[in-house]
């Protein structure tokens, strides 16, 4: 069986049964364990699945969306790109800004090329990989690594976040609920709260896909945002004077 | 081939052959003389090569820190042997510090044989290499320095000072004749010093190309270390610190 056929077979097996051991895969595909381990390593690097100690795990649809992040050239949709570009226009030369972790904010990084002398604080390691070298000062917070989207959270992140005063903090959200920006974990929520406290101006980037979703944890109230850039303004009835539709 | 890959390949080729002409580089990489000259211009500006009338020679790491990809290719076999010996010191379940040097990063593949490690590092490269392993990864945070793919500065030092490591694994650019582990750039020092200061066991890993070099900024004297690992059969001499020679 050729490698590409094996990859397709592995993915379809994982689709049915979310976790498979190397033994099971070997039995199903009649391929040696060492070959499979090489395959799984490659597929894991390319973001198709998660390699575990004895086998592989399928990505959930949400994880699939986030893990694919390690291709920095990943393009945004037209609507997302418009939001990203509009967000970049909020940033002035010489600013000290905080950038949250999200694909959309990564997309915004391209538009920072024209800005000068920014100091960017972030919890997104992916941003360090994406930003052109040397143009701006990039400071990453410390903390526990979440491999899913190459970001850090935890007490080191919070301690680091509190060291700075941000002229502008740009937040992403993974959902909205009852006037709150929602995110996936309490650790992320805590970090967002600390950053928001230390920011002069707070901006939220909310594409329609996120506005329509609810994720587990309430992070920040929408009322705390000074600017909301969105293509779904109907989700922000209380904030019409602060909403920008690019 | 992307330009950055080609630049690294040119450096690697020069390191092996010592000298290359523009026509040779054109043939090797299938690009035009104008492209090669632009590449050499860039490398020369970064002080990585000396340009002669017709070609270029490598510029042994002078006042800059050469790109991490180039450094990885230098003495790779020696680094691997040293890394393997270092990894043997690591027990399952321990808390270790890994620095951003290519020697220490070579430990990554061997660390996959251990269980339940907590690994603290200032290296973005390490995070990328190990993100899909089952170990707990913690980034120190800090200001990003692209050529090393790593973070430095006071935030990085604070991140390190939050922990007490079982082992700190560090490499330096040089081990001077007087027995100092020393660095080319000042910012590289504080992170390494902090890690040594917060570890029960401090391990210096340096291949023989680093022995008896002179560099301006001292990290620590080898007599204050707990372990030295090197492939040099002779150096360092006259130290009470145990030396593992591979």
Short account of what is shown:
Chain A is an alpha/beta fold and 246 residues long.
Radius of gyration of chain B: 19 Å
Largest interface, with Cβ-Cβ < 8 Å? Answer: A-B, 30 and 23 residues
The helix tally of chain B amounts to 10
By CATH, the architecture of the largest domain in chain B is named 3-Layer(aba) Sandwich
Give the helices and strands, then pairings:
The complex is a heterodimer of chains A (246) and B (246).
Chain A: H1 3-16, E1 19-21, H2 22-29, H3 33-45, E2 49-51, E3 55-58, H4 61-67, H5 78-88, E4 96-99, H6 103-109, E5 119-122, H7 125-130, E6 137-140, E7 143-146, E8 151-153, H8 155-161, E9 166-172, E10 175-177, E11 180-183, H9 186-197, E12 199-206, H10 208-211, E13 217-221, E14 227-230, E15 243-244
Parallel strand pairs in A: 4-5, 4-9, 5-6, 9-12, 12-14, 14-15
Antiparallel strand pairs in A: 1-3, 2-3, 7-8, 10-11, 11-13
Chain B: H1 3-17, E1 20-21, H2 22-29, H3 33-45, E2 49-51, E3 55-58, H4 68-73, H5 76-87, E4 95-98, H6 102-105, H7 108-111, E5 118-121, H8 124-130, E6 136-139, E7 142-145, E8 150-152, H9 154-161, E9 165-170, E10 174-175, E11 180-183, H10 187-197, E12 199-205, E13 217-221, E14 227-230, E15 243-245
Parallel strand pairs in B: 4-5, 4-9, 5-6, 9-12, 12-14, 14-15
Antiparallel strand pairs in B: 1-3, 2-3, 7-8, 10-11, 11-13
Helix pairs in contact in B: 2-3, 9-10
Describe this structure in words.
The complex is a heterodimer of chains A (246) and B (246). Helix content of chain A is 36%, strand content 25%. Chain A is of the alpha/beta class and 246 residues long. In chain A, the strands form four sheets. A seven-stranded parallel β-sheet of chain A has the order 6-5-4-9-12-14-15. In chain A, strand 4 (96-99), helix 6 (103-109) and strand 5 (119-122) form a beta-alpha-beta unit. The longest helix of chain A is centred in the first third of the chain and has 14 residues, at 3-16. Chain A is elongated. Chain B has two domains: 3-59, Winged helix-like DNA-binding domain superfamily/Winged helix DNA-binding domain (Arc Repressor Mutant, subunit A, Orthogonal Bundle), CATH 1.10.10.10; 75-245, Rossmann fold. Chain B is built from ten helices and 15 strands. In chain B, a hairpin with a 4-residue loop joins strand 10 (174-175) and strand 11 (180-183). The longest helix of chain B has 15 residues, at 3-17. The model of chain B is unreliable at 60-64 (pLDDT under 50). At the A-B interface, helix 7, strand 6, strand 7 and helix 8 of A face helix 8, strand 6, strand 7 and helix 9 of B. Strand 7 of chain A pairs antiparallel with strand 6 of chain B.
